[in-house]
Structure formats: C-alpha cells, structure tokens
Queue: 2 jobs
Job 1
Amino acid sequence: MAVKLKSRDEIRVMREAGQIVGQTLERIREMVRPGVNLLEIESFVRDEFARRGAKETFRNYSPGPKYPPYPSNICISINDQLVHGIPRDRTLREGDIASFDLGATYKGYVGDAAITVGVGEISDDAKKLLQVTEDSLWAGIRAARSGRHLNDICGAIEDAIKPSGFSIVKGYGGHGVGRDMHEEPHVQNHRMRFRGTPLNPGLVLALEPMVNIGAPEVYEESDHWTVRTKDGSLCCHFEHTIAIRDGEEAEVLTLP
Ligand code: MF3
Ligand code: CO
C-alpha cells in the first residue's frame, strides 16, 4: 500500500474532523476529576458525535482476526495501561493519570488524537512523564517539514525522550491517516535505519509517542486490547494528527 497525499480540499475536511476530535478532548479534559465514571465519558463522546455529525471510528474497528471488534468510541488507559483501554464501569481516582485517545470520521475523513491528564494532584514523577511525552510529540511536530524525511520526525521524538531516562515503547507508533484511520506509513517513536517516506505537502500523519517511566516492555491484556506495562510502571501517550505543508511547519489538525 502506498502513501496517499491529500489535496487542499481533503485537508480542509480533515481539519474539520480534527477539530471535532481536538475540541471533544478539551471538553473531556475539563470533565476529569476524582469520581468521574469512564462510561460517562464514553456517553459524552457519543452525544458530541451525534450533535456534530461525526461518525464512529474506533467502535467495531478490528485490525485482524485475532482482535474482537473494539467496543467503544474512545480508548481510556489509566496509570500502567498504555493504550487501547476499554471504558468500563470504573471511576477516576485522585492521583491517577488517564489517557484519552479519540478518533472521529467526518465527511469520510478521520481525525485521531490523544491526551494524558492527571486526576487531581499527581506525583512529581507523573508530572514529569506527562511533560516529557507531550514535549516529544511537539518535537516530532516541529521536525515535520516538507523536504525532510520520516526519520527526521522519529529521531526528534527519540531525542526528546532520551535525556529523561524514561523508556520509549517499541512496536507501537503513529501512522498515516485519511479515509482510513491507519494508512501508510507507520511512524516509529525512535530512529529507523533509513530515511523513510519523504515529507511532501499533503502527507497527513498521526504522531503518537508512548513512554514508560520504567522498562519498555508492554503486553496485551486478555481482552486483546488493553496494553499495559510489564513492570506495572506508569506510562503516557499523546497524539496529534498533522498535515505537512509547503515551506512552513506542519499544521496540527487536531489542535483545538
Ligand atoms: N489512536 C489509536 C491508533 O491509532 C486508536 C485506535 S483504537 C481502536 O491505533 F480501537 F480503534 F483500534
Ligand atoms: Co492513532
């Protein structure tokens, strides 16, 4: 499968999809406090999608026969859960860190973004983890300029995480995005051995660094979705959908 560059008209629609995702995540950030049930957040997302004319993207998604269809519209992953946590009847507690990963389809195009948020007062280690991971996303975004190559993004993300001593999770990463949530290319959060896809105007990518405070190993829970750290350490995930532009920094389509 080849990389699909988007026209200006397609990017205009992807900006709308991105805004639905980015603005809904901002509302969720405001909802976060001890005692909020994860199912309230899922139902808020459903209401927002209905109100704004967005179609479900994550629900019923299945990357292959091993995976049962994903049952919700948002992934909520708490503390040692890295990504793809399924919202269930559970409340957020003071000191938790929770990642919210949201995808929406609007007029046929997908927006995909994620934030990690502290619940009430969180530890200094957790604060640093959130800061390092979000900073690494922005380092990747700043490196995403036409004329460069994919590996410049991967290297920038890696270099932003390295000095912290935290671990970069391997085997998961970002991706091209368009009519499909997952398009070419795959975007690692660490350097590759080759330059990779040229960053041409119209290339739309979801960048999503994933960082563990402890060891880099993760595993999939028996629900086949939830990804957790093996050592039980805290982990973090931020994501934006960006569009490469001619001669200037990438546009962050999911920035509210
Ligand atoms: N942002 C995630 C990804 O790119 C969300 C997918 S969750 C799924 O993989 F349930 F839809 F798979
Ligand atoms: Co994604």
Note: The CA atoms of residues 22 and 30 lie 13 Å apart.
Job 2
Amino acid sequence: MDERYVPQNIEPRWQKAWTEQGAFTAGKQPGKPKFYVLEMFPYPSGSLHMGNLRCYVMGDVIARHLRQKGHDVLHPMGFDALGLPAENAALKDGVPPPERTPKNIANARRQMDRMGLSYEWDREVATYRPDYYRWNQWFFLRMWERGVVYRRQSSVNWCPSCNTVLANEQVEDGKCWRCGSTVVTREIPEWAFRITNYAEDLLQGLNELTWPERILGAQRNWIGKSVGAEVEFAYAGTDEDPNARGQALRVFTTRVDTIYGATYAVIAAEHPLVAQQFGKGKREGEVAAFVQKMRATDKTERTAEGAPKEGVFTGHYVKNPFTGERIPLWIANFVLAEYGTGAVMSVPGHDQRDFDFAKKYGLPIKIVIHPAGRSDGEAYVAALHKEGKAFTEDGVLANSKDMTGKGSAEAREQLAERAQAGDFGKKTVKYHLRDWGFSRQRYWGTPIPVIYCEKDGPVAVPDDQLPVTLPPWEKITMKMTGTAPLRTVPEFMNVKCPRCGGPAQRDGETMDTFVDSAWYYARFLSAKNDKVAVERKEADRWLPIDLYIGGPEHAVGHLLYFRFWNRVMKEMGLVGVAEPAKRLLTQGIVYKDGAKMSKSKGNTVDPDTLVDTYGADTARVFLMFAGPPEKDLEWSDKGVEGASRFLARVYRVGAMHAERIKGAATPSSMAGLTGADEMVRRAAHRTLKKVGEDLSGGASGIDYQFNTAIAALMELTNTLYEAGAAEAQPKVSDGVLKEALTLTSQMLAPVAPHLAEEMWNALGGKGLVALADWPKFDADAVAAQSITYAVQVSGKLRGEVQVAVDAGEDAVKAAAQAEPNVQRHLEGKSIKKVVFVKGRLINFVAV
Ligand code: ANZ
C-alpha cells in the first residue's frame, strides 16, 4: 500500500481487476443458493447525480455481501431508454433521440463503473434497441391472441384547431396550451391491456410479498375491491307522462342497507342511456348543454373529492324497488362512467356527496340508519344533518319497513338476497382498477405491430417481420407531441396487408414506456438470446427477484404493471412463478439545501466531481452512513468529509503495518490473549457479528442497517487506534493486528470495495476480497465476559457474584441479593444505602 490514501490511484485498478476476472458473472456457482438483486433501471438522461446513485449503492452493498456469503448472485443493470424527455430535448437542440440515447447510456455506465458498482454488464438491456423492443411487439401479439390486449374507444383531450391529442398538463383552464382554443373530449380508438382480469389475483398475491406496508396498502387501494350489490330501478316515466315506457336503470351500491332512503338516482354524463333516452324530452337542451360542459372539463378535476357538486334533472323518473316510490333521475359530475354501472342510487341521509347535492338542489333527505345502542338514534342523525353532515356509518335500520331494527350488515345480506330472488338485482364485486390503455401519440417508443387493411381490418404484423423499427427522427414532419409523429412518414406508414397483399397502413402509434419496464427484469436472464424473450430454464433458476430496490413513487404504476405482466408470462409458460419480486426495499429521497436533489432544482451533486475529490469509496460510505435506507437523507459536505477521514484512518493502519505483518500467524482462539490483544480481537469479532447481522436484512429480509454497520466499523477503528495501531510500535501484536485488519477489509468490502481490495491484497489475501468467503466470528471472543463482584453487607464481605462485564448497578444488585449468604445477612433488616464500585464491589448498608 502506498503511504498516503489516494483513492484515485487505487480505484480504477480494482475496477479493472473485477472486470478482467469476471468477478460479477452470475451462474458460475450453480450448486449455491441463488440471489437476484435488482435496482430499478434508470432513464438515461444526460448524467446521474448522487441522489440517483443512493439506490444503486444500496443494491451493490447487498449484492457484494451476498457473494461473500456464498450466494450465486445475479446483479444486472440496464436502461429504460425510451420516452418523452429525449423527444422534448430533440425539439430544443435538434439532437435526435437515437443519437442522444446511446451517448447518455455510455455516460451513465461510466459513472456507475466509477462508483464501483458490481454489475454484470454482459447482460445489459437498453429498451431503445430493436433487439429489446421487438419482444414488446412479440408480447403484444401474443397478448392480443389471448384477449389480454384489446382495442377500445377512449376519451382524450382534443384540440380541434391543432388537430391533436393533448396530455392533461397541456390543457390550461380548458384551453389548449399552444393555441388557446377550447379543448374538447374526443373518443379515439386505443389499445389496452385487460389488467382488470387479474384484479383479484393481484390483490391476493399481495399477501405473499415482503414489501413495505405502505406500498402494499397503496396497491390494495388502487385495486379497490368493493363488495356490494347491483339493483335495478324500473323506469317510471317523465314529469309530463308518468306512463311513458323506457329502460330500467342498474345502480351499483355498497350500501344496499340504505336503499329505503334512496330519494333520487344519478348517472354519469357519459352513461349510454343519456344518449338513448334520458337526454330526450322537454329538458333536452339543458341536458345536452350540461353533458357538453362535462365533456370539456377534465375528469379527475370534476370528480375530485372537494370539487363542487353539479347536476341537472333529466325530467325522467325511476322506481325504488323496495319503497315503490318514483324518484327523480339526475345527471351529475361526481358519478364516474367507468366505475360500477355508471349509475348510483342517492341516499342523502347517509352519504356526504349525496347530502351536499340534495341540499344544493332541494331534494328530499330521509333518515334510514341510526347508530346502534342509542335511544335517541334518529334525533342524533337529525342533529348531524343540521350541521351539514350525513351519518355515513353502519348502524341500525330505521323507516325501512320490515327491515327496521336490523343491523346494516344483516340487512345488506337480506336485501341483496331479496333483489336476487325477485330478479331485480344481485350481489357483486367491483374493482376500482381500470384497464391499462397504452397507445401513445409519440415517437420515442415501441411501434405497435399492427397493420390496418380496408378489407381485413387490423392485422398482426407476422412474427418473422419483427421488429417493426422506428423510422429516422429526421423523416418526421410534425414533431410536436400529440400528433402521432410516425403517421407523418409515408414510407413507414404505407405497407401491404400481410393477409391480402392490398394497400394498408401501419398503426402509427407507439407503446407507453411502462411496457418496457414491465418485463425487463426477465430479459436480463436471457439478454442475448434472439430466439426467445425469456428462457424458461433461466427463469426457473432466477425468478422471482429476491430483492428489488427502488423509489416508492412507483407504488401503483410500474410496481403493479410488472406484477400483471409476470402473471401473463406465467400463463404463457415463460416463467414459473406469479410474483416477480418477493421483497421490495424502497429507498428514501436525497435532499440538498432543503429540496429534493434534482436537475430541475439545480441542486445536484455530480458523482464525477465527488470521485475526483474524495474517491468512490467515500461517496459510498457517506450515502450508506447518512441514515437508514428507507429514510430521506440530507446531503452534507461535512458528512462526506467525515466518511473520507474514516477511510483514511483505516488506510493508515494498513499502510503502516501490512507489509511487516502479512506473514504473521493469526490467533485461532482467545487462549492466552491479554491486554491490547484481547481488546482488539474481541472488538474485531464483535464487529464482525454486528456487521453480518446489519447487512443481512433482519427477520423481515428488508430491514437493512447499513448505517449502524458502518458505525460499528468506525468504533473498531477507534479500538485499533487505542491499541496503538497507528503508531510505529503498536501495543497489539502482529498476529492479532493482521487478523483484525483482514477482517476489517472483508467487512469493508461491501461498502468501500476498493480500499478493501487494496488492504486485503497488501495483507497477503488470496484472490479478490470481493469473492472471499465471509468469515465466521469466534463465539468465545464475542461472548459477554463475566466479572466477579465482592458483596458486602454493612462493610463485611458476605459473598461474591459473577456478572457480565458491562452489567450496571441494578443487575449487580439483583444478582447480589439473590446470593443465599447475603440474603441471610439482610434478613429482617432494611437497606439504607447501596454503595456500588463499578467492576469491584457492592455494599448494602443495612440496619
Ligand atoms: C348508495 C350509498 C349509500 C352509497 C350510502 C354509499 C353510501 P366504493 O366503495 O368506492 O366501491 N358509486 C357507485 N358507482 C359509482 C360511480 N360510478 N361513480 C361514483 N360513485 C359511485 O363506492 C361505492 C359507492 O359509491 C356506492 O354505494 C355508490 O354510492 C357510489 F349511504 O350507493 B353508494
């Protein structure tokens, strides 16, 4: 080792050694237990910053530690390289996405390598390459065959003067951000995945996963299972003609127990019956205007919880099947067309939205539920109503004919059964989860492999013509997003129908980039295979991912999509398990100067500068030491310096003594060790035990404690300095020092891998420390040592007790009082005072 710690001299050397020796190649130890650790792959924007790198360093520490523990570790990395940012950047600076992306990837890879991340680059996957996205197209076709992919009409924001689809953020106050025209809702065809078919299975599967509770909760919510009933309300004419005929209305309710209080019904503006029937009659104009207004307002906005309730009476009535009453039918903004049946029975007494709406429009409010166990139940609910609040809890039924007096749960069962028996309803389960529409009017994505022929309709591109590759960016004439850019390239669009050979057109849209990330983890297993997307034998060896690491912001996006995709792959026989990732670790955010570290805030810390100044090991130690993995952390230059000082202190001991002690015989037990030797060996083995535990994920398997592992290593370093290890003549003997330093290099190897290699090598270690077995701690050295206390009663020696070295006064006192001879002398007396001399004696002053 050089005298001075200059990480820039050490780090590239070991990075080269790792690569040359294929140190991180998975599959070399088929007999060993496998471990697949994966960090969410990044989008390759210009360069990575330290905020991005936290997650990768975490994964790397775990991957490295598992290799030490004898696992066959798979730790791949790739790039989520398609998507809008590259397109937007191209509009600004003219660099086409296909040119920019590989450059960005090369730079990100260089930065990752400089950080010493132990990736197996032979498996790299970059989603912009046709050899990747051809499999997106292949999956699309297989899923289309299976009915998992289908075509549907979907409403989008449409600017009639730009002739283009607008994203939600391109609509400002209902106007187009570009030209200011009023935006309308338009139905256009799109492709969608039938993820809703998997709703129940996706919900049940959550029970098998070791994921953070809040992510599981978010997915449960998002899937949103609701057990309820569908009930039919017969048509009951209009205000002019009560005998007019018409179609019945089906509503979905989770509270059929409140049905005696349903005083009006409401449907969504997009409900098909509006166009067919309920939009007709005397109020036709009013209804049409309201529907038009709804269509022009953003859906999420108008259905948001706090949004003012708005509606219009249709002039039509339906009949409450349980009370027989004619109730008015309204159209309102808070009912969603896509959920349930797109129609609700309104119970203003017991639902807040219905209550607010009834107040606003003067509709009747009935009390049909009151709290159980109160004599003044109805008065209580009436008082709530006066305050403007509905009573929304379960309770006891009131004013509900023969159901009066029954509990909500029982009434729900019985009323649903009656509806079913009378053939006007049934119990149902609904999910809030929606199908995943994935057509995008964008360039930098996977072209959809479908050809439209006037005669044959939509036809699949034959497998042997895959991939359908993107035309050059330069050919696109309308590059602004919203207009499917591929449609402006005739050479791309105009093709022959694969079936009849007649003139036909390609789809022209591209896939949502969440498609790319929905299965990349499986492609790593067969990254170079151009015959199949995923080889079954590789899938059986490696899946599921044992530990997945990434940001909690993906809770209901990517983390749901990849669970869906894996299920489809299982049905296709490509993989054997339903769940793609058994454990999930979500990392906290890195802040700097009070804001999330990000390019847009301009508060990033560049890894290159950091590595140039302090070295990668320092950057890694800082990131792992600054706090527990799932907690947010504040960037601190002081903290970085602290990490650097710590490593320099370790290095100094190695540099001073390694050469001299590398041949020394190391002790194999505590036998005969005293003084500094005993202190150092005990400290080294205790630290070894602690670090091993902290890096293993705890009982849950996701409870990693990198920060306390590093704290323990810092303490060990202090002990070494106490034993004179940074002096020319240490108090500790060569053999003990050699063992302690060797263990230190092994313990540092996951976090500060370069310094660890340097030290391991200097101490004569064989091969790479990265691949050396994790050492076993010596139980004797770790065992709590005991010590003897003299026990006195009023100054006279009455016994002795053995206690742990670090036992405090209370523990010693308890042990002493349990001694029979001491007990005898204390009998009948009361203790006035206890004198405690740490490490020596305890004296009970008793009279
Ligand atoms: C009557 C009722 C009375 C309701 C009551 C609630 C309380 P979740 O739990 O989310 O499934 N609903 C049904 N379809 C709807 C739609 N398309 N848009 C908006 N709201 C809809 O909620 C189900 C409840 O939300 C249903 O139960 C219905 O109102 C409403 F005291 O029916 B309820």
Note: The chain has 28 helices and 34 strands.
